[in-house]
Amino acid sequence: MRKCIVAVAVAAMFATAADACTGIYVGKKVSVEGNVLIGRTIDSGKAVVGKAMNLLDRVENAPGRYYSGGNDRGGWPLPDTTWKCLMTPQVNMRHAFRYDSACLNEKGLALSGTVTGATNEEALKSDPFVKEGFGESSVVGLLALSCSTAREVVELLGKVVAERGHDMPEIYMVADKDEAWYIEVYTGHQWAAVRMPEDKVLVIGNQFMIGEFDPASTNVMCSPDVVKLPLESGFAKKGRKGLVNLALSYGKPRSPYSNMRTWYGHTVFAPQDKIGDYVNDREYPLFYTPSRKLSKRDIFELMRSRYEGTKYCPEESGDYGVRVIGTVKQCSCHVLEVDANLPEEKRAMMWATFAQSEHSPFIPLSCDVSRVEGPYSLFSTDMTIPYNDALATHAFRRLAILAEMDRKMTGKGVRDYWRALEDRWMTEFPLVVSGGDKVDITAYCNDIQRRALEDARAMFDEISWYNTFHSLKPGDSPTKPLPEKKPYVYSRASERHTPGFKLLLIAGAVFTNANSGIVYKGLVNAAQVAGYTPLVIPYMEDARRIDAVMDKADALLIGGSNAQDDYDKRKKFDIQVVRAAAARGIPVLGFCHGHQMINLAFGGTIGRIATNLTPKVVHKGTIRPFSRNNFHEINIVSNTWLHGIVGADTLRVNSSHVYEVKNVGKGLKVAARGADGVVEAIEHETLPVTGFQFHPETIGDMGEIYDRLIREALSRRKREIAPAAATKQ
Description:
- By secondary structure, the protein is of the alpha+beta class.
- It contains 19 helices and 28 strands.
- Helices cover about 30% and strands about 20% of the residues.
- A hairpin with a 4-residue loop joins strand 8 (about 100-105) and strand 9.
């Protein structure tokens, strides 16, 4: 008996093809992030259709399995080992048509399927679709589980189409760290694929776009008869070079429904091309060069666009019959990202909405998690799709529709709040995925999922009451003025950070050479002791990037120096981040090397410890793993913050250093010294900046006082007087 991941036993009447999607691609050489980006809106004729998340673990050495997710006659055989995948199937289709839509796998593969095309009748007479063939309802998950490269996806899809046939006209896009492919399936057995250029972009509506096609060219793949069939059957249309134009041969005539989205994307991303006003029968190019490098934010906003700034914008023209990109029909949108510099299990990332993108957030997702939040992974067992408050997609959907009803007075507040959160996530998430094993990516992603859902539900309730409060009409209260109606603002919108989430940046490791970049567990533990979520930031030379990261931080922690670090580069970087943090008034805590860098940032000096100090104190000791053979007492200065926390004149600490603070920087003061006079602690007079020459983060179970030092240092706040600025050197 066949063993299947998904069993199918329902009629095709329940299938809901995403027949109105918009596809977007940005090559890695023209993206701000330097990563390939693939985007797609998922637009459905059924407004209540939603999406869930499905995390499938790797299965090794398990032969005899089949994958089925649609009306595909029992599925397709899976390899003995299938990859861990994160998929986004339809919320009401778990036991029927999956429509996995967007998939990431542990090999760094990102796959989107599909944008539905439109095949003409002449082509279908020669090669009709196969009713029980594969298609977007089933094949996307199969490809993600089975393949480790984009090229393998194209090859396997071609094999499936050849042997079992395809059921709909569809367009797929897939990327890995090396290449990205665009695939059009025209008929039951004919398809073509082109490798997408790294320096180009595309935006397409529901239409085929591959023009003149030479099967012998490099960077293309296709079915054996994709050119031969139209030539022999008499429906071929050739271009100026005499080659068969696949889009015109297989596709239906251009229409505003699809072609206008293609045109609009070109005008937004490449205004320098000056393609002019929309022309219905114009064959716009598939790939083109953007006017500037594009970011995920550019894709998000294009997915939300309603032809703003043109005569086709419904809000400006009053014609709501125009098919915009940011349609209310969207049930989900996603942007897939592949970062070639990350380990393969972290390489593929997804930014996904679970309802209409204009009034829903693009939530960052990773395949490198152990679980997803429950409301996002639930599926409806009722095929009639009743409202279910437990489903995340329904909560986002009802908010989006409510916000859409008054785009100016309530919708704008929702849009503004989500965009502010997205900006923060886009700064945090790259740091999370590049933070190594010490950063809990599952906890981070689940926290975002949970809090975004809480926000969606809270905003729905607030807007419902807002509408109730302003429900009176002029005739309802003739003797009293109606309450002034101000635009809705979410009650949590003014909070500086994601509710309940405090971000601490760790500059304790800078990846300046092949051997450096060690992040000691104590630094991560120190952040967590203080109640923060720790994120490691790598070495950066661009001050603007440092500022952009620091704008999102709630605190900064700088650890000790690794002997293999590129010291000069690290010193320059650490001084920059201290100054950036001090300028924002956020807590800064430095251990050992970090203590010295704080002093330098404020114009002080450091130098080697003199060898003739008395009494003799051993400062160079072993602190990793934990050791108690290099502890010594320090004398705490009275009337300092440190004295108030310790509540004593002395403290026993550990050391491992050869440099010390010499001249104390502007605005700083000595908080503790060793018996030999070495500065063991400094603190700023007005700013929440603290430096310890010792290592409380490595002491472990030596006592509550060390944990308290860390917690209190990272919770200090700027005094209510004019602060002294970090001094430029």
